[in-house]
Amino acid sequence: MSTAAPAVSVDGLVMRYGDKVAVDGLSLEVARGTITAVLGPNGAGKTTTLETCEGYRAPQQGTVRVLGLDPQRDRAELLPRIGVMLQAGGAWSGVRAEEMLEHMASLHARPLDTRMLGERLGLGDCGRTPYRRLSGGQQQRLGLAIALVGRPELVFVDEPTAGMDPQARRTTWELLEEVRADGVTVVLTTHHMDEAEHLADRIHIIDRGRVIATGTPGELTREGRSATIRLVVNRPFPDGAPESLRAELGPGTEVRQLDEVSMLVHGPADSMTLGRVSRWCEEHDVLPETLNLGQRNLEDVFLDLTGRELTP
Ligand SMILES: Nc1ncnc2c1ncn2[C@@H]1O[C@H](COP(=O)(O)OP(=O)(O)OP(=O)(O)O)[C@@H](O)[C@H]1O
């Protein structure tokens, strides 16, 4: 564990919009040089938290420090050192992509080469396209280029791959990994658990304005009370098999039939459950060809903690 001061520290943050509590006593830290994901469902309070770190909103309660500075009081000192990729917009509608990027570069003392950055992000072909005519994925990539052009020490990226096709998503992930390799700290929000699992050194899972779990992807998915069991049998299940297996396993278990010979069981991660599945097979005259306890993913972690799906 690094002893260096954290890049970001949020302590007891409370944010409301009128009567609505958007952030409810949220605390988290981001270590320097890492990719940290703030993962949570829509409306969990991710964007509001990020906007407070970026200095766009003043904390109503609690404290926020970014690179050791107060994002409100020390805004002028902080701004040249951070990059921000907004969730939507970030450019005015008529401006061409390359003009926007060059304009942003001109605001920084030592900007990156805009042509190279545009090429790297696959913006080469649309440099002369007005912002409003860019696809959603292209607007996202331009937003990321704008966040990176000033060689920030820390970048905040809000839903970096929303609206991107799988290939653009991969490229964006690679780029964020390169940025980290250069020593830049990356804080990203996402509601895609695969994105958090793939990219993040550390994940803060948030729900209803609070951090409900923190850890590396491995730590979060190893601990816990439940697992996914995959069952594949030698011949089609009898009618009513999922209901009958669920009854055998008791409460707290979900059973989903995938096709005529396979089922997924989500339930307690213990040998008793495996034993019961095996006994049920024997009683129903089907032979398990596969019966294995799968690795939990972040979706399972979220379900364990909240009783709800991360991506409904
Ligand atoms: N300007 C606003 N006025 C009123 N309510 C708002 C405003 N911005 C956000 N909210 C509400 O505050 C809560 C938290 O919103 P926030 O955008 O921070 O969540 P989020 O986790 O980023 O969600 P998403 O993934 O959908 O962007 C939500 O219930 C949202 O509806």
From TrEMBL:
Pfam families: ABC_tran (PF00005). Keywords: Antibiotic resistance, ATP-binding, Nucleotide-binding, Transport. It is found in: Cell membrane. Residues 8-233 form the ABC transporter domain. InterPro entries: AAA+_ATPase, ABC_transporter-like_ATP-bd, ABC_transporter-like_CS, ABC_transporter_ATP-binding, P-loop_NTPase. Its main location: membrane. CDD domains: ABC_DR_subfamily_A. Gene3D superfamilies: P-loop containing nucleotide triphosphate hydrolases (3.40.50.300). GO terms for molecular function: ATP binding. It is a peripheral membrane protein. This is ABC transporter ATP-binding protein. It comes from Nocardioides potassii. The lineage of its organism: Bacteria, Bacillati, Actinomycetota, Actinomycetes, Propionibacteriales.
